[in-house]
Automatic annotation (TrEMBL):
Lineage: superkingdom: Eukaryota
Entry annotated with the keyword Lipid metabolism: yes
Designated name of the protein: ClpP/crotonase
Family designation: Belongs to the enoyl-CoA hydratase/isomerase family.
Record has Lyase as a keyword: no
Source organism per UniProt: Wolfiporia cocos (strain MD-104) (Brown rot fungus)
UniProt keyword list: Fatty acid metabolism, Isomerase, Lipid metabolism
Gene Ontology MF terms in the entry: delta(3,5)-delta(2,4)-dienoyl-CoA isomerase activity
Amino acid sequence: MSEIIAALSSQFIQVSLPEPHAALVELNRKPVNAFSQEFWTELGHTFDKIGREPSIRVVVLASALPKAFTAGIDLSALATLDTYEKEPDKNALQQRDFLAAFQRSISSIERCPYPVIAAVHGVAYGLAVDIIAACDVRYAASNASFSIKEVDIGLAADIGTLARLPKLAGNLSLVHELAYTARAFGPAEALQMGMVSRVVEGGRNEVVHAALSTAKEIAQKSPIAVLGTKHLLLHARDHSVQENLDYTTVWNGVMLQTADIKESLAAVKAKRKPQYATLGKLPSKL
């Protein structure tokens, strides 16, 4: 198991298993986790590999650095855009491919079949919000500072913030204000907006501890039930109520055959904790 988890780490990303079946993914590009193209590509590959690892049931995404989750994109990573074709049509096609690959890397978090809990502390600007919005559960340390920063460098956020944040937030007026002004905001406004579900007093260590505590609880649940719940919640977000109900009947028509149900009922009867089997190898896309 340790060899499998170690193989998931890369130059800028550390992966460990601090709790059974609960992976901790830590961003680690000093000094402030500014994202280069290599970094965001690594992130995408990491979550795609985690999504195919049956021994993992839940993931915590955090920063290994004491003062920042991420300061956003490393602006030098955009220098390659100057090497593209100068003709507008060809340039547009190359830009589109660049952005689509970038979006796919960040969407790997949402694509991961297991729940992903963001544990955010310190600076969380620009691309940080794209990343956070792709997570399933979001905790913020009391020292966290957020900003939808893109308008300050002359563009609309294009890697996921504008696509996901309006669907997870309960205060669209505040979402618009923050996206238009790029002003920094703290955990209280993030909680008010619905971007985070919990504010943890302290910094990195405290918010990671809280996230791992929740991850430990999730990891003890039926893995097929948790995986199905994430899948159906994402489907519900993007479809009508009736479409989701219809889809759920098909999904559970298969998944109700799981041995996890028998184990759950046997555990209740015996007054013991259930012991669920590890999932088999998952397909690349559910």
